[in-house]
Fold this sequence. Notes:
By secondary structure, the chain is mainly α. Helices cover about 75% and strands about 5% of the residues.
Amino acid sequence: MWDDFKKFALKGNVLDLAVAVVIGTAFGKVVTSLVEDIIMPMVGIVAGGISVVNWSYTFKNVVLNYGLFIQSIIDFFIIAFSIFMVIRIFTNLKRKKDVPAEEEPEVLDKTQEILIEIRDLLGKQKTGL
């Protein structure tokens, strides 16, 4: 049983997933701080000091904090856009690295050129062109 667990836990995919979770968590904290501490205060300044977090509706003894919900939606879109941009940047970098260098055209010597001409002429004779 221990050997099976070691095989499972030490597979590359499991380790990659663990690293991705840790990095994703750290990245999430950075983006959340960006949204809460920088972007939303600037949005508040542009909107004339309006903060949606405090918006609420009270019905009898029940308080509906719909401002927190709106804030969460805004946070989601900003975080999703940030992740999209990071993935797009990494994808573009990977594409540039994966593109093979243009191959130089093969230089043929005189014998090879003559053989190609003979081959082409024989092909034309067979087809009757």
